[in-house]
Amino acid sequence: MLELSPFLDAIAQADAPLEGKANGWQRKAVLAEFGNACAFCCGPLDLSSPKSWTATTLVPAQLGGPTSVVDNWVPACRPCAASKGLRDIVCWKEWQASATPDRVALLLERRRSALLYAENHFTPLSRHSKRERLLANLSARFDKPRFRVYAWSGEVDGERVGLVGWSTRSGDALALSEALLALRMRDGGEVLAEGQVTLLRLPADGFLGAVWALIEAHGLVVELDVPSGGPLDVGDWRECWRHRVQDPVSNHKRVPMTGGPALPHAPRVLSTNPDSVRRLAQLQAAKRADRLEEAELRYREAMARKAKYLERVRRGLEAPMPLDEYRAWADEVRALGVTWARMVTQSRQDLNRPPAHTDAPYSGRSMTRT
């Protein structure tokens, strides 16, 4: 039987408050940026009284907000700081409803800039993905409220077990409720404990998929410090959920912030988007046409050199080469012709074959390029 107390205790211990304080230069920097005014209500701050204002984070350290990044700090009057509390600013709907759209957009963009240098999980992209696509993947996560969950997988009494849990201080209540619903309905999770700490058991074969769904929902998934974790499947790139990075470059290179060698990328998966399928088919057709044109050119140039040689020999302008050497040369020319002919046949077959990743009918086109 699975003993829950080690996991519940580990969540309670890992969920201790992490909120830090802005240092002197960070406080001066944010005051200068916001003109000695509250970033939320825009009211002037009484700098003569340190207790009348504070520097607060847009994304709390408890949710992985970067306390060392000045963009994550803003000046706030005490009432605004108390109203915001330790929640992600994107969850503060009351302020967003009362503030001007420009002010909301300014602070949300500042939050996005800060999150680029927060603790972030790797992306499910292949090594061929460009940096712009990685940033787009991270940006899609940043649009959602950030929350903190804990996960563990290992063996208990010879049985593979996967657990996910969180506490009431783990972030936005709505985001956590949606996560709970998805884990139960989509991933087949079984609720083992509810209250101050929520703990679910997931099917062993669905654990990694569920963890990555939480990551894409902007969850910060932290591995629980509980013994008997068991061996990892080093061949599965999804096992890198345990690692995080603090800048986009390291994320792109798959270098964890704890150091060590780069971690494996996700395998390359071709898009099933109709536009992507069409562009891929066009690119492949253009490459086939280039290779076919190059093969034809090599064959015709070889035939022209051979014909020129035979004509010069016939006119007595050049001595005949040894018979064995001539036969070897003729075989090379013939091989170029065979290669070209095979490529022509293959191209005609490809034209009549529907493209991959789509059920749409495919109409053949001429290999002649315009």
From TrEMBL:
<protein>
    <recommendedName>
        <fullName>HNH endonuclease</fullName>
    </recommendedName>
</protein>
<feature type="region of interest" description="Disordered">
    <location>
        <begin position="349"/>
        <end position="370"/>
    </location>
</feature>
<keyword id="KW-0175">Coiled coil</keyword>
<feature type="coiled-coil region">
    <location>
        <begin position="285"/>
        <end position="312"/>
    </location>
</feature>
<feature type="region of interest" description="Disordered">
    <location>
        <begin position="251"/>
        <end position="271"/>
    </location>
</feature>
